[in-house]
Amino acid sequence: MSIGDWIKQIRAEMGITQQHIAEKCHVVFTHVAMWELGHRTPQPQYVGIIEQMYSEYQATKRDDWFIAGDKNFPQKLREFRLKRRLTQVELAEKVGVNRQAVLNWEKGIEPESSNIQALRKLQEQTDGNAESDKFFENFPEKMKGLQTRLTCTIGELSAMLGVSKRSVDNWLAGKTVPPISIVRLIEDFCAQRNIDFNDLSGAAKISPDEVRELRNMMDLTQVELADSISASRSSITNWEQGTASPSAIHQRKLISLRNQAQSDLSNKLNFLLNDKGFSFEELAQELNDIINQESEDSDNKTSKLRKNSISKWVAKTGWPNEQERAAIDDLCAKFDYKAKEGTDVINNLSPG
To answer: What is the CATH T-level fold of the domain 139-199, as seen in this structure?
Structure first.
């Protein structure tokens, strides 16, 4: 490898410009360009300076990306700040500068060496903060998963979050990440809907198991599920076997059907718990009694529902089996429960 190629290679690895090397060597940047092209050979003292720069980089690159002259420094600093849930003001306070200084760094103005040392110290203190970093892992996929879970358009999602459609477009494309204020808004938004944002990265596509689970939870045959979303029975079979995947339109219909089924169950549980005053323990016992009374062989089919099961159904982290759903329906009928129009999808399916 020629010395010109060596300089070009390590400069690319370090992410620095020809100008930065020129400044360290106290030459004009055209000298560095000519070294890399092989038109001139750098003097030994310049080679020594470059070797020293590279040695320092090698010593720190494993656990420290605050490298002076790094052209990607502004982006890395912003990512560092966001992953630690810090606003510009909060980061400024932690490293002993004002907000304008942090703003300038993120615009490309290089920090003083003392500021870089302060940033390195902060990095050491906050390394391993997995909870903070986890939010931004696979962020575009999580946003796609959130959109799929809510069965909404990008415009509808942006309206729900109170941000611009362009912002959501950029997040989905991986071009930008949201500021801390929006991060907290997204977390609150998901928490209110019992959605774990960090588990959404795989939610953008519905899996074969999820298709089967949806059909079973609603007591539907493949033909009935196919009719309800305007698909063919063979499509349902292929989706459940994993030999094909639902189209984007059918994915949204499947998720929508699941959400509606969960809402139907939630409405019934809220009616019994809130309107009729059952406690979780009392409701579990009442459902046990109904199931056991209707069982032909109570010795083998004794229901042992507990209040924890009711809690999971309410939180939408669990789903009752066929006997349990029948018992819920019987108890609701006893109290003249009236389903909200359009929500009782388990018993009132309509194609498409």
So the answer is: 434 Repressor (Amino-terminal Domain) (1.10.260)
Tokens 């720069």 sit on residue: 53
8-state DSSP, 103: H
CA 45 to chain centre: 50
Closest CA to 101 of 71, 81, 72: 81
pTM: 0.42
Q: For the chain, which residues make up each domain, given as ranges?
A: 3-60, 73-132, 139-199, 249-334
Please state, in angstroms and rounded to a whole number, the distance separating the CA atoms of residues 305 and 63: 52
| pLDDT for res 128 | 53
C-alpha 217/C-alpha 235 separation (Å) is: 19
- Radius of gyration for the chain, computed over Cα atoms and rounded to the nearest angstrom: 30
Q: What is the CATH number of domain 73-132?
A: 1.10.260
Binned at pLDDT 50, 70 and 90, residue 352 comes out as: very low
> What is the second-level CATH architecture of the domain 3-60?
Orthogonal Bundle (1.10)
Q: Mean pLDDT, to the nearest integer, of 47-60? A: 80
For residues 352 and 229, is the Cβ–Cβ distance under 8 A?
yes
Residues 6+ away with beta carbon under 8 Å from 305: 284, 285, 287, 288, 291, 324
Q: Do domains 3-60 and 139-199 have the same CATH topology?
A: yes
Contact (Cβ atoms closer than 8 angstroms) between residue 119 and residue 66? yes
